Amino acid sequence: MPTKHLAAKVKKAVIPVAGLGTRILPASKSVPKEMLPVVDKPLIQYIVEECLACGIEEIILVTRQGKEAIENHFDTDFELETILEQKGKRENLTVVRKIVQMMNIISVRQKKPLGLGHAILCAKPLIFNEPFAVLLPDDLVDSQIPCIGQLIQIYQDIKEPVVAVEKVPTEEIYRYGVVIPEPVRDNLFKAKGFIEKPDPEEAPSDLGVIGRYILTPEIFDILEHIPLGKGGELQLTDALNRFAQMNGVYAYLFEGKRYDAGDKLGYLKANVVYGLKHPKLKRDFNNFLKEVVK
Hints:
Spore Coat Polysaccharide Biosynthesis Protein SpsA, Chain A; two-stranded antiparallel sheet; 10 helices; disordered N terminus; nine-stranded mixed β-sheet; alpha/beta; globular
Protein backbone atom coordinates (compact mmCIF):
# COMPACT_ATOMS: atom_id res chain seq x y z
CA MET A 1 0.00 0.00 0.00
CA PRO A 2 2.20 2.88 -1.22
CA THR A 3 1.84 6.32 0.28
CA LYS A 4 0.24 8.63 -2.29
CA HIS A 5 0.80 11.93 -0.52
CA LEU A 6 4.00 13.75 0.34
CA ALA A 7 2.62 16.61 2.42
CA ALA A 8 4.81 17.16 5.46
CA LYS A 9 2.62 19.78 7.09
CA VAL A 10 -0.06 18.46 9.43
CA LYS A 11 -2.87 21.02 9.29
CA LYS A 12 -5.86 19.10 10.68
CA ALA A 13 -6.57 17.32 13.94
CA VAL A 14 -9.37 14.91 14.81
CA ILE A 15 -10.54 14.92 18.42
CA PRO A 16 -13.06 12.18 19.27
CA VAL A 17 -15.45 13.46 21.97
CA ALA A 18 -18.38 11.07 21.61
CA GLY A 19 -17.47 8.82 24.53
CA LEU A 20 -19.74 8.36 27.56
CA GLY A 21 -17.03 8.91 30.16
CA THR A 22 -18.12 5.92 32.24
CA ARG A 23 -14.79 5.72 34.08
CA ILE A 24 -15.44 9.05 35.76
CA LEU A 25 -19.13 8.68 36.63
CA PRO A 26 -21.13 10.24 38.21
CA ALA A 27 -19.27 13.46 37.30
CA SER A 28 -19.86 12.81 33.59
CA LYS A 29 -23.56 11.91 33.89
CA SER A 30 -24.83 15.33 32.81
CA VAL A 31 -21.56 17.12 31.94
CA PRO A 32 -19.39 15.90 29.05
CA LYS A 33 -16.16 14.53 30.48
CA GLU A 34 -14.27 16.76 28.06
CA MET A 35 -15.77 19.78 29.83
CA LEU A 36 -14.61 18.78 33.31
CA PRO A 37 -12.16 21.41 34.55
CA VAL A 38 -8.52 20.85 35.25
CA VAL A 39 -7.83 23.87 37.49
CA ASP A 40 -9.63 26.61 35.51
CA LYS A 41 -9.94 25.18 31.97
CA PRO A 42 -11.93 22.23 30.62
CA LEU A 43 -9.99 19.22 29.39
CA ILE A 44 -10.89 19.91 25.77
CA GLN A 45 -9.32 23.38 25.89
CA TYR A 46 -5.93 21.94 26.85
CA ILE A 47 -6.13 19.67 23.80
CA VAL A 48 -7.08 22.53 21.47
CA GLU A 49 -4.26 24.65 22.87
CA GLU A 50 -1.81 21.81 22.22
CA CYS A 51 -2.92 21.76 18.59
CA LEU A 52 -2.66 25.52 18.31
CA ALA A 53 0.90 25.48 19.68
CA CYS A 54 1.95 23.02 16.96
CA GLY A 55 0.68 24.86 13.90
CA ILE A 56 -2.52 22.86 13.39
CA GLU A 57 -5.08 25.03 11.62
CA GLU A 58 -8.34 23.11 11.83
CA ILE A 59 -9.96 20.82 14.39
CA ILE A 60 -12.61 18.22 13.67
CA LEU A 61 -14.65 17.20 16.69
CA VAL A 62 -16.27 13.77 16.37
CA THR A 63 -19.24 14.20 18.65
CA ARG A 64 -22.71 12.90 19.48
CA GLN A 65 -26.02 14.06 20.89
CA GLY A 66 -25.65 15.64 24.32
CA LYS A 67 -22.16 17.03 23.74
CA GLU A 68 -23.25 20.48 22.55
CA ALA A 69 -21.51 22.13 25.53
CA ILE A 70 -18.15 21.38 23.91
CA GLU A 71 -19.03 23.25 20.72
CA ASN A 72 -20.61 26.05 22.73
CA HIS A 73 -17.40 26.52 24.71
CA PHE A 74 -15.60 27.60 21.53
CA ASP A 75 -18.48 29.72 20.24
CA THR A 76 -19.35 33.34 20.97
CA ASP A 77 -21.57 33.98 24.01
CA PHE A 78 -22.91 37.47 23.37
CA GLU A 79 -24.82 37.65 26.66
CA LEU A 80 -21.80 36.70 28.75
CA GLU A 81 -19.52 39.09 26.88
CA THR A 82 -22.01 41.94 27.29
CA ILE A 83 -22.30 41.36 31.05
CA LEU A 84 -18.53 41.17 31.49
CA GLU A 85 -18.09 44.37 29.51
CA GLN A 86 -20.79 46.21 31.47
CA LYS A 87 -19.21 45.17 34.78
CA GLY A 88 -15.75 46.21 33.64
CA LYS A 89 -14.30 42.72 33.93
CA ARG A 90 -11.84 43.24 31.13
CA GLU A 91 -9.49 40.40 32.06
CA ASN A 92 -12.31 37.83 32.04
CA LEU A 93 -13.66 39.28 28.80
CA THR A 94 -10.25 38.90 27.15
CA VAL A 95 -10.03 35.26 28.27
CA VAL A 96 -13.50 34.45 26.92
CA ARG A 97 -12.86 36.11 23.56
CA LYS A 98 -9.48 34.41 23.20
CA ILE A 99 -11.18 31.00 23.44
CA VAL A 100 -13.47 31.86 20.52
CA GLN A 101 -10.57 33.05 18.38
CA MET A 102 -8.38 30.01 18.96
CA MET A 103 -9.08 27.79 16.01
CA ASN A 104 -11.41 26.87 13.18
CA ILE A 105 -13.45 24.08 14.78
CA ILE A 106 -16.01 21.97 12.97
CA SER A 107 -17.86 18.86 14.08
CA VAL A 108 -19.28 15.62 12.70
CA ARG A 109 -21.58 13.14 14.44
CA GLN A 110 -20.69 9.59 15.41
CA LYS A 111 -24.19 8.14 15.24
CA LYS A 112 -23.32 4.74 16.71
CA PRO A 113 -20.94 3.99 19.63
CA LEU A 114 -18.67 1.71 17.64
CA GLY A 115 -15.30 2.67 19.08
CA LEU A 116 -12.29 4.85 18.34
CA GLY A 117 -11.65 3.44 14.88
CA HIS A 118 -15.22 4.21 13.87
CA ALA A 119 -14.98 7.73 15.32
CA ILE A 120 -11.92 8.45 13.19
CA LEU A 121 -13.65 7.00 10.14
CA CYS A 122 -16.47 9.51 10.67
CA ALA A 123 -13.97 12.32 9.95
CA LYS A 124 -12.95 10.89 6.56
CA PRO A 125 -15.00 13.34 4.40
CA LEU A 126 -13.15 16.27 5.99
CA ILE A 127 -9.57 14.99 5.74
CA PHE A 128 -8.99 14.60 1.99
CA ASN A 129 -5.55 13.37 0.88
CA GLU A 130 -3.38 14.70 3.69
CA PRO A 131 -1.88 13.56 6.98
CA PHE A 132 -3.78 14.39 10.14
CA ALA A 133 -3.38 14.30 13.90
CA VAL A 134 -5.60 12.46 16.36
CA LEU A 135 -5.69 13.55 20.00
CA LEU A 136 -7.74 11.89 22.72
CA PRO A 137 -9.02 14.44 25.25
CA ASP A 138 -8.62 11.98 28.16
CA ASP A 139 -4.84 12.22 27.87
CA LEU A 140 -3.10 15.34 29.16
CA VAL A 141 0.64 15.37 28.49
CA ASP A 142 2.88 17.66 30.50
CA SER A 143 5.98 18.27 28.36
CA GLN A 144 8.29 21.04 27.17
CA ILE A 145 7.45 20.32 23.53
CA PRO A 146 3.74 19.47 23.08
CA CYS A 147 3.34 15.74 22.54
CA ILE A 148 1.58 16.07 19.19
CA GLY A 149 4.35 18.46 18.13
CA GLN A 150 6.93 15.77 18.87
CA LEU A 151 5.03 13.36 16.61
CA ILE A 152 4.74 15.98 13.86
CA GLN A 153 8.53 16.37 13.91
CA ILE A 154 8.94 12.60 13.50
CA TYR A 155 6.37 12.52 10.68
CA GLN A 156 8.13 15.31 8.81
CA ASP A 157 11.24 13.13 8.83
CA ILE A 158 9.84 9.68 7.97
CA LYS A 159 6.58 10.54 6.13
CA GLU A 160 4.82 7.55 7.70
CA PRO A 161 2.19 7.25 10.46
CA VAL A 162 3.56 7.57 13.98
CA VAL A 163 1.92 6.92 17.35
CA ALA A 164 2.97 8.02 20.82
CA VAL A 165 3.85 5.29 23.30
CA GLU A 166 4.87 5.09 26.93
CA LYS A 167 6.32 2.32 29.08
CA VAL A 168 3.46 0.65 30.91
CA PRO A 169 3.65 -1.43 34.12
CA THR A 170 2.92 -5.12 33.54
CA GLU A 171 -0.21 -5.05 35.69
CA GLU A 172 -1.72 -2.28 33.52
CA ILE A 173 -0.75 -3.55 30.07
CA TYR A 174 -4.19 -5.09 29.50
CA ARG A 175 -5.65 -1.57 29.19
CA TYR A 176 -3.53 -0.57 26.16
CA GLY A 177 -2.84 -1.25 22.55
CA VAL A 178 0.71 -2.62 22.66
CA VAL A 179 3.46 -2.32 20.04
CA ILE A 180 5.58 -5.12 18.63
CA PRO A 181 8.68 -2.92 18.35
CA GLU A 182 11.79 -2.92 16.17
CA PRO A 183 14.28 -0.25 17.36
CA VAL A 184 15.22 2.41 14.81
CA ARG A 185 17.00 5.04 16.91
CA ASP A 186 16.68 6.60 20.34
CA ASN A 187 13.02 6.42 21.44
CA LEU A 188 11.83 5.57 17.90
CA PHE A 189 10.61 2.12 16.86
CA LYS A 190 9.20 0.63 13.70
CA ALA A 191 6.02 -1.22 14.61
CA LYS A 192 6.00 -4.78 13.34
CA GLY A 193 2.45 -5.00 14.64
CA PHE A 194 0.03 -4.03 17.39
CA ILE A 195 -2.02 -6.07 19.86
CA GLU A 196 -5.15 -4.60 21.46
CA LYS A 197 -5.36 -5.01 25.26
CA PRO A 198 -3.31 -8.22 25.59
CA ASP A 199 -3.07 -10.33 28.71
CA PRO A 200 0.23 -9.51 30.48
CA GLU A 201 1.81 -12.84 29.58
CA GLU A 202 1.00 -12.27 25.89
CA ALA A 203 2.20 -8.65 25.64
CA PRO A 204 5.02 -8.32 23.06
CA SER A 205 6.55 -5.31 24.88
CA ASP A 206 5.85 -2.76 27.59
CA LEU A 207 5.18 0.00 25.04
CA GLY A 208 1.54 1.05 25.24
CA VAL A 209 -0.09 3.43 22.78
CA ILE A 210 -1.49 6.64 24.27
CA GLY A 211 -3.90 9.19 22.82
CA ARG A 212 -1.66 10.93 20.28
CA TYR A 213 -1.33 9.86 16.64
CA ILE A 214 -0.24 11.17 13.26
CA LEU A 215 -2.11 9.17 10.62
CA THR A 216 -2.37 9.19 6.85
CA PRO A 217 -5.53 8.74 4.73
CA GLU A 218 -4.73 5.09 3.96
CA ILE A 219 -6.02 4.27 7.43
CA PHE A 220 -9.57 4.97 6.26
CA ASP A 221 -9.53 2.21 3.65
CA ILE A 222 -8.39 -0.23 6.32
CA LEU A 223 -11.02 0.91 8.82
CA GLU A 224 -13.72 0.44 6.17
CA HIS A 225 -12.78 -3.20 5.60
CA ILE A 226 -11.62 -4.73 8.87
CA PRO A 227 -14.12 -6.57 11.08
CA LEU A 228 -15.23 -5.33 14.48
CA GLY A 229 -12.74 -6.20 17.22
CA LYS A 230 -12.79 -6.45 21.00
CA GLY A 231 -15.97 -5.21 22.62
CA GLY A 232 -17.79 -5.32 19.28
CA GLU A 233 -16.06 -2.07 18.30
CA LEU A 234 -14.00 -0.92 15.34
CA GLN A 235 -10.57 -0.85 16.96
CA LEU A 236 -7.97 1.62 15.75
CA THR A 237 -5.29 -0.72 17.10
CA ASP A 238 -6.49 -3.45 14.72
CA ALA A 239 -6.29 -1.03 11.80
CA LEU A 240 -2.78 0.04 12.80
CA ASN A 241 -1.77 -3.60 13.01
CA ARG A 242 -3.03 -4.18 9.47
CA PHE A 243 -1.28 -0.99 8.30
CA ALA A 244 1.98 -2.17 9.88
CA GLN A 245 1.82 -5.40 7.86
CA MET A 246 1.37 -3.48 4.61
CA ASN A 247 3.41 -0.31 5.10
CA GLY A 248 5.40 1.61 7.69
CA VAL A 249 4.00 2.58 11.09
CA TYR A 250 6.29 3.99 13.76
CA ALA A 251 6.06 4.34 17.52
CA TYR A 252 7.72 7.17 19.44
CA LEU A 253 8.50 7.09 23.15
CA PHE A 254 7.54 10.68 23.77
CA GLU A 255 9.20 13.03 26.22
CA GLY A 256 6.93 14.15 29.04
CA LYS A 257 4.46 12.83 31.57
CA ARG A 258 0.97 11.68 30.65
CA TYR A 259 -2.04 11.92 32.94
CA ASP A 260 -5.12 9.84 32.19
CA ALA A 261 -7.73 12.46 33.06
CA GLY A 262 -10.55 10.12 32.05
CA ASP A 263 -9.78 8.09 35.16
CA LYS A 264 -10.66 9.37 38.65
CA LEU A 265 -7.17 9.07 40.10
CA GLY A 266 -5.53 10.36 36.93
CA TYR A 267 -7.91 13.32 36.91
CA LEU A 268 -6.96 14.21 40.49
CA LYS A 269 -3.26 13.93 39.66
CA ALA A 270 -3.68 16.22 36.64
CA ASN A 271 -5.40 18.86 38.76
CA VAL A 272 -2.55 18.82 41.28
CA VAL A 273 0.21 18.99 38.65
CA TYR A 274 -1.44 21.72 36.60
CA GLY A 275 -2.48 23.59 39.74
CA LEU A 276 1.18 23.74 40.78
CA LYS A 277 2.00 25.24 37.38
CA HIS A 278 -0.74 27.90 37.40
CA PRO A 279 0.93 31.34 37.52
CA LYS A 280 -1.63 32.85 39.90
CA LEU A 281 -2.37 29.83 42.07
CA LYS A 282 0.83 27.81 42.35
CA ARG A 283 2.29 29.46 45.46
CA ASP A 284 -0.87 29.32 47.59
CA PHE A 285 -1.78 25.88 46.26
CA ASN A 286 1.69 24.56 47.08
CA ASN A 287 1.39 25.92 50.63
CA PHE A 288 -2.03 24.31 50.95
CA LEU A 289 -0.70 20.92 49.83
CA LYS A 290 2.11 21.13 52.37
CA GLU A 291 -0.47 21.68 55.09
CA VAL A 292 -2.53 18.72 53.86
CA VAL A 293 0.53 16.46 53.90
CA LYS A 294 1.24 17.47 57.50
